[in-house]
Amino acid sequence: MPALRVGARWLVPVSAPPVEGGAVLVGEDGRVVAAGRSAEVPSPAGVATLDFGDAAILPGLVNAHAHLELTALRGLVRDLRFPAWVAALRRLKDALGGEDVRAAARWGVLEGFAAGITATGDTGSSGAAAAALAALGARGVAYQEVFGPDPAQAAESLRGLEEAVAALLPLASERVRIGVSPHAPYTVSEPLLREVVARARERGWPVAMHVAESPEEDQFVRHGAGPFAESRRARGIPVEARGCSPVAWVRRAGLLDVRPLLIHCVTADGDDAVAIARSAAAVAHCPWSNAVLRNGRADLALFRRLGVIVGAGTDSVAAGGGLDLFREIRLAALGCRMTPREMLRLATADAAAALGLAGAGVLTPGAWGDLCVVGFGASALAAAADPEEAVALGAGPADVAFTAVAGRAVWQDGRWPGVDAAAERAALTAAAARARAAAA
Ligand SMILES: [Zn+2]
Predict the structure, then answer these.
(1) 16: which residues sit within 8 A by CB, 6+ positions away?
(2) Which of 157, 175, 270, 403 is the most exposed place for a label (fewest CB within 10 A)?
(3) For residue 115, how far is its CA from the centre of ligand 1 (angstroms)?
(4) CATH no. for residue 54?
(5) Cβ of 188: how many Cβ atoms within 10 Å?
(6) What is the rounded distance in angstroms from the CA atom of residue 205 to the CA atom of residue 181?
């Protein structure tokens, strides 16, 4: 990995105040050697040097939650209540072939690079995201999903999960971790959840789960009623009222004991938030997806007061958005008293902590040389007095001029170095066309 020195008018380390006239030196091992005032950052001979002028160098953005394998399904399912949306999306995903899903995941990684994203917490069932993250040089945790709403399926689902994880483990590296994701309370039985938690504890697997995402899920768990219950009953799957919230239910099954990533937590109440804080579980907050799917808003202010680790996530682009963490942190800040630095931390240091990615999301010596450079060329960003505020409140993916993972450029001059972008775009377009045909 070649060493790299990047300079710009501003360094925005996120873990400390901005530095005017900043630079970052990344060593051959892909780790930050020095970050600070340019005059104090060495310029060893033979090191590739880039100066971005009126721009800000930030840690690479960390997306706490995505479904990269669904990138070809953007905008295909609209205006349905959440349970029907999930079912429609599932049908479209099943209509795609393996190559379609792989192309979608690769494009998701590339789209992320162009938007400043260097690390992703992905949940998926195909293994395509793990392969894409590994092949394209991204960082992340690929959580292999497991489904099984019928308690009678638990052993079989667990076997399938074990096989899927075993197949993915050869892709594991310092950059890519393999984890597991019992999908959601309405797709996983209690015996299966308990077994997955036990296995995760034994093997040290990172765990992520969609929890407390929608009012319908809450109704399903508490009362054994509503659309999720009806569709289970129609399939002959037993449904019971658990008499508690989704967070309380996953806690009862032991999930909170393995410090999971809890995705959404929109319907989590005060007791749930306290339980999450006490267990040191983390939350992936995806405000755009929650709003578009009409699921509501997670109480970020409450989580922050209780000291819960929260990272911003985009969720899948199928929910109508893009991989735009700038937008997510702005939506997150609504109704929360947050400084621009705190907003930026949601998509960098805090998201990395939520995913357990040590050395990501910061630019301190020894951290990974994952960074993005936000150009201030756009008129709205010109003459910014406070670069943290400019980026947190004004920047978007189109302002990202440069992205590197472990010192290796993955987005530069409007292209992905070493990637056949035309072929990748064609593969994505073919996958999206197949999905559109299935939707028609
Ligand atoms: Zn999700």
Answers:
(1) none
(2) 270
(3) 19
(4) 2.30.40.10
(5) 26
(6) 10
**Residue 232 belongs to a domain:** no
pLDDT at 188 > cutoff 80: yes
- Residue 413 Cα to ligand 1 midpoint, Å, equals 31
Give the distance (Å) from ligand 1 centre to CA of residue 319: 9
Q: Is 209 helix (H, G, I), strand (E, B) or coil?
A: strand
What is the mean pLDDT of the segment spanning 61-81? Answer: 94
Average pLDDT, the chain: 96
Domain count, the chain: 1
CA 39 – ligand 1 centroid, Å: 44
d(CA 341, CA 326): 12
Ligand 1 mean position, distance from CA 197 (Å): 19
CB 369 within 8 A of CB 406: yes
Residue 41: which domain range? 4-60+360-412
Render pLDDT for 381-411 as a digit per residue (tens, 0 to 9). Answer: 888 889 999 999 999 999 999 999 999 999 9
Per-residue confidence at 126, pLDDT binned at 50, 70, 90?
A: very high
Q: How far is the CA of 373 from the centre of ligand 1 (A)?
A: 28
What's the whole-model pTM score?
A: 0.98
Q: Is residue 231 included in any domain, yes or no?
A: no
Interatomic CA distance for residues 198 and 213, integer angstroms: 24
Is there a contact between 3 and 21 (Cβ–Cβ < 8 Å)? no
Ligand 1 centroid vs 3 CA: distance in angstroms?
Answer: 36
Distance of CA 136 from the midpoint of ligand 1 (Å):
22
* CA 315 – ligand 1 centroid, Å: 5
* Cα(229) to centroid(ligand 1), Å: 20
Phi, psi of 7 (to 5 degrees): -125, 155
Q: How many A from CA of 171 to the centre of ligand 1? A: 22
> Is 35 a member of any domain?
yes
Rounded to an integer, the average pLDDT of 158-171 is: 98
Among 16-20, 87-91, 99-103, 343-347, the minimum mean pLDDT is found in 87-91
Q: Please tell me the distance between residue 286's alpha carbon and the centre of ligand 1 in angstroms.
A: 9
Residue 75's pLDDT is 87
Domain assignment present for 107: no
